[in-house]
Amino acid sequence: MKKSTALLVVAGTLSILAGCNEKQAEVVQSVDWYKAHKAERAGMMAKCKANPGELAATPNCVNAGRADSAVTWGAKGGAISVKPLTAEQINK
């Protein structure tokens, strides 16, 4: 009985210590969220550029990059929607 109790205490302690090394899950923000939060977008872009090998493909880096591109190109007029040409327009 004493051995099994001691074994459970040791196993519980080891599992707690093993959990301390795990990284906490980062909240993933959407592209629209990064568009609306300029400071956070800039911070995430700086973080992603500082360590592209590990972070470039993470959801937050991808979403911040897409938001940054959308905001940049939108300010330059790149967000103008262009309708596809019809066959009649092409033949004129």
Structure characterization notes:
The protein is mostly helical and 92 residues long. The protein has a domain at 35-78. The chain contains 6 helices and no strands. It has helices at 2-20, 31-36, 38-50, 52-55, 59-75, 87-91. Helix 3 crosses helix 5 (59-75). The chain starts with a helix and ends with a helix.
Task: Quickly count the helices.
Answer: 6
Q: What is the tally of beta strands?
A: 0
Overall 3D form: elongated
Biggest pleated-sheet summary: none
Q: What percent strand?
A: under 5%
Secondary-structure-derived class: mainly alpha
| N-to-C span | 93 Å
SSE order, one letter for each helix or strand: HHHHHH
Poorly predicted residue ranges: none
The helix content, as a percent range, equals: 55-70%
Mean pLDDT: 77
Q: Supply Rg.
A: 25 Å
Put the structure in a nutshell.
The protein is mainly alpha-helical and 92 residues long.
List keywords for this structure.
mainly alpha; 92 residues
